[in-house]
Amino acid sequence: MRNRFFSGFTPNTIPVLIFALFMISACSKDEVEDGSYRVKFKANGTPVEFNSQLTLTASFGQSGNQYVAVFTGYDAESNISIQVHDGKAIEEKNYSGYILSGSAFVGALIAYKDKAGTVYTQGVPGNASITVSEITATEVRGTFSGTLKATGKDDVIITEGEFFVKRLN
Fold first, then answer.
1. What pTM does this model have?
2. 150-168: pLDDT as tens digits
3. Are 8 and 137 in contact (CB under 8 A)?
4. Which of 61, 50, 37 is CA-nearest to residue 140?
5. I want to staple 128 with a disulfide (CB 3.0 to 4.6 A). Which of 11, 26, 123, 146 is the partner?
6. 54-28-12-106 Cα dihedral, nearest 10 degrees
7. What is the DSSP annotation of 17-54?
8. 146 CB contacts (<8 Å, ≥6 apart)?
9. Residue 168: per-residue pLDDT
């Protein structure tokens, strides 16, 4: 039996979920004194890095058998939301594509808003790849890549992505 919350999910509702989870994950006020948290990647070969300790977070959620983890970084002009979805608890492994498997979405999603204000996402099922390499009680670490699209814009190819963020829950 599918959870009522996810019964109406379509690929068009994904951006709404990304925004909601991004806003939830941005509620941290703690800082790491050594400044080690970061999200960095190359967008079409251009380095992008988020290193403001207040904005680098990981949030985990569950509704029925749908599990989601969101890793974020942002500044005043741009942001990135890196998500993994599964029908079981999020674990240290590679997540790729994005499909409905049984009654749960499984895979990886990336959304990136550049400094010009354009929001890029991948198509569904997409080619995003996110590897969660370490999950502790306080931090999450991993890598990511993918090709992102925006209507009327050239694709953005994300390479050499890595995140090391504070775990909120």
1. 0.80
2. 999 999 999 999 999 999 9
3. no
4. 37
5. 146
6. 100
7. HHHHHHHHHT------TT---EEEEEETTEEEEE--GG
8. 108, 110, 122, 126, 127, 128, 129, 157, 158
9. 97
Which range has highest mean pLDDT (4-13, 52-61, 124-133)?
Answer: 52-61
Per-residue tokens: 104: 């749960």
CA pair distance 39, 72, nearest whole angstrom: 8
What integer pLDDT is reported at residue 32 of this predicted model? 43
Q: pLDDT tens digit string along 92-129?
A: 999 999 999 999 999 999 999 999 999 999 877 689 99
Pick from 4, 14, 17: nearest CA to 99: 14
Residues 6 or more apart in contact with residue 169 via CB below 8 angstroms? 59, 60
Of the candidates 32, 160, 16, the residue with the CA atom closest to the CA atom of residue 83: 16
Q: What is the DSSP letter of 16?
A: H
SS3 58: strand
Q: CB neighbours of 98 closer than 8 A, spacing ≥ 6?
A: 14, 85, 105, 106, 107, 108, 109, 122, 124, 125, 126, 128
Closest of 65, 75, 63 to residue 26, by C-alpha: 75
Q: With contact defined as beta carbons under 8 Å apart, do 144 and 163 qualify?
A: yes
